[in-house]
Write a structure and sequence with these properties.
With 300 residues, the protein is α+β, with helices and mostly antiparallel strands. The chain has 2 domains: 2-19 and 269-299, no CATH class; 27-266, Neuraminidase. It has 2 helices and 22 strands. The strands form 6 sheets. A 4-stranded antiparallel beta sheet has the order 4-3-2-21, with no helix packed on it. A hairpin with a 4-residue loop joins strand 15 (182-187) and strand 16 (192-198).
Amino acid sequence: MLVRSAHSLVLAVLFLVLPFSAARGQDLAYFVSGSLTGGEQALRTWDLEDGSIATVGPLDERFEVIAFDIDGRLLGVTHDRDLAEIDPATGQILSQIPLEPRPSIQGVPVLSLFVDSSGTVLLSEQRPALLGGSTRLWRVDRASGMLDLMAEFPLVILHSLAGGPDGLVALGFEEPPGRFIRSFELDVENQVAIPGPQIPDMRAPTPGAYLDAFGRLLTITWQASGPLPPDYYVVAIDLETAAVTWLQGSQNTIARSLAIFDRGPVTTVPALSQLGLLVFGMILAGLALVLFRRRAGDRM
């Protein structure tokens, strides 16, 4: 009877402790901040819970896009077409190699940088309208900087590249003439961008995106509510319904290229959980003492 009661107490304490023993890590959105005319840039963080923005440090290069790899290293492509690794704690450039081949036309923008689950670095680049208006998808050799053309998607301009459950997804618009933002599923093998629903009330997305645990695509966009500069927002887009959730906004920050590193679940022990563990330990110690005394009495 005593052992059965103690067993019930143990189960009750476990019921108290376990719900508080695991929680999801708080993720920060990293982005490049600069002026409308270029100029100096800085690496900054955006807390998507409370909206606070903090500066990590200045950037010695102008960056078109940034993205985290699967190991938590922050990568970026500079305006001069170098692949760089950036220290996310300081903004300092840790390494830098030129990408080859260089674009034949200066000013052709890099639209997005993405690292898939295998660690492969992918880069999307816009071809100008005079060449038909398309998006090229490149595979990047991180050791040499060599670019390997994977696919070219005609008549679409694709931003915000991310990995979906069935492959690559992106935000963009069709050319010509469109400026209506919509989602696309990318069939890389057949070089086809399959259009999804139009995203309402959204201006052109900036490079960089992140697919969260709920299947929403997080990216940065802007709205002009008055004189320039416009207001920038982090938004979460449901790719099936095109519903847009406006997470955070800033009137004083020009934001380019969102990057989020998913740290996944982390183990935490809040105060209530610590108390539960203490009680659990005391129960086990008491149970061990009672059993010891019972065995000692049986021997006598």
